[in-house]
Amino acid sequence: MVISKEWDNLLELISDGIIITDHQGVIVKVNKAYERMLSIKAVDLVGRNMSDLKREGFLEESSSLKVIETKHPVTLIQEHFGKDLIVTGMPMFNEQNELILVINCVRDITELNQLKRSMQQIEQINHSYFEQLTYLRQREIHLDGLVAHSQSMREVLTNALKVAAVDSPVMLRGESGVGKEVIAKFIHQNSRRNGEAFIKVNCGAIPEKLMESEFFGYESGAFTGAGKGGKPGVFELANKGTLFLDEVGDMSLDLQVKLLRVLEEKEFRRIGGVKTIQTDVRIIAATHQHLEEMVAQKQFRQDLYYRLQVYPISIPPLRERKEDIPYLVDSFARKYEEKHPVPLHIDPMVKQLLCRCDWPGNIRELFNMLERLAITSNNGEILPDHLPLEMYRPVGSTLPRNFLEEVEMFEYQGLKQALVIHKTTRKAAQSLGMSQTTYVRKLNLYRDKFEADPKMEQEIL
C-alpha cells in the first residue's frame, strides 16, 4: 500500500516516532522523528521485514508481528540502543475487515524513567533521613552541660553516637572538667542499654583498700565490719547497663589485674564468696592522664590499656572550642533558674569577656565562676563589672618587684576593665573620675611597662 503525500506530510509533523508495516510485517514508512530517536535512516528500514530485523537482533520484540498475530492493539516496553521506548502497535483494517497496515507509535521514555529512578532514590534517601531523625527524636536527651556548637564537639558527639550502637569499650580522654561524664551518659542514653543502670565509679576518690569491695561487693562476715547480708558491688548493680570508670588511671595495679579478668571472663566472685556471678556490663572509662606514658613506666597494665582503648574519644579543652562558651553560659542560666526561683540574666558583654579566658579548669571552672557571680550579683543580673579583675586578661608574665609596682598593676587592670565596659577612653575616664588625658597617659604608661606582648591589647583597644 502506498502512503499518500498528504498522509506522509502529516506523519512528519508528529513528534513521536512512527513506523508503519503492511499486513506481512514489511516496513512501508518511517518518519523523521523515528530516525532521530534511533539514529537510523529510513532508507535502511523501508522494505525490510520485521521478522528479519528481529532475527538479526535489531529488536527483541516486534509490536507489528504481535498485532499481525492477534489482530489487536499491542503495547511493548523496549530497551533499544540504550534508550527506553514504549511502542504501541495499532491494526488498520479495510472494508472487508482485512488487516492492511500496522501503525506503530514509538515514544522515548528514557528521561522519564531516569526521572522516575531519581525520584525513587530521593524517596529512599528521604525515608532514610526520616528514620534517622525519628530515631534521634526518640533518643533525644537533655543533659546538663551538653553543648556541641563547635565543630570539634560535633565530631565528638558523632563519634559517640557511632559507638553507642555497639557494646565496644570506650576510652574518653581529656583534661579535668571537659565533660567526660556527660559524654559517657550521652553514649549510655543512645545505646540499647539506655533503660538499664548507669553506674559511675571515681577510681581516684575511693581508698585503695575499699576499691575491691566497691567493684565486686562482699558477703556477710567477709571481713571485720562487713555489713550483715553482704553488699553488691558496682558490677552487680550495673548488670545489663553501663559502668563508667572515671579516672581509671588512678587504679592500683592489683585491682587492674582483677578488672582485666572480669572484662575477659565476664564473671567474678564477691569478697568472701564462693558463688560465681555472671556479669554483662558496657564499660566506658575516662582519664585525664597520659596512659601511654604510664604503660611505659609500668604504672598501668598494657593488656588492660588495650582492652579499654578499643574506641578512644578525645574531648577538647574549653580553650580550643570557645565558640561553645556563650551556649554553655545559657545552659548554666537555665539550670540555675530551675533550681532557684530568681530569674538569672547574664549581660552579653559578660559572655564576650568569658570567651577571652583560657579556662584551665574547663567547663567545671566556668560553671563555678558563674555560680559565684549569680550568688553575689544583685537582682539576678550578672554585669561586666561583677567579673573579677583577672578576667580582663592577666598582665603578661610580669611579676611585681615591689609593693608600689603591685599597686600599679592593680590600677592597670582597673583601667582596662573600665575600657572594656565603656568602650571609649572618654567614658572609661569619666567612670573612674579622671580626665581623659590622665586616663590615656596612665594606660599607655602601664601597657609599655607591664605587657610582655604589646599586641595582646590590640584586641581590647
TrEMBL record:
NCBIfam families: sensory_box. Residues 3-50 form the PAS domain. Keywords: Aromatic hydrocarbons catabolism, ATP-binding, DNA-binding, Nucleotide-binding, Transcription, Transcription regulation. It comes from the Bacteria. Residues 70-121 form the PAC domain. SMART domains: AAA, PAS. This is HTH-type transcriptional regulatory protein TyrR. SUPFAM superfamilies: Homeodomain-like (SSF46689), P-loop containing nucleoside triphosphate hydrolases (SSF52540), PYP-like sensor domain (PAS domain) (SSF55785). One of its GO terms (biological process) is regulation of DNA-templated transcription. The keyword Plastid does not apply. Residues 146-375 form the Sigma-54 factor interaction domain. GO terms for molecular function: ATP binding; DNA binding. Pfam families: AAA_lid_14, HTH_50, PAS, Sigma54_activat.
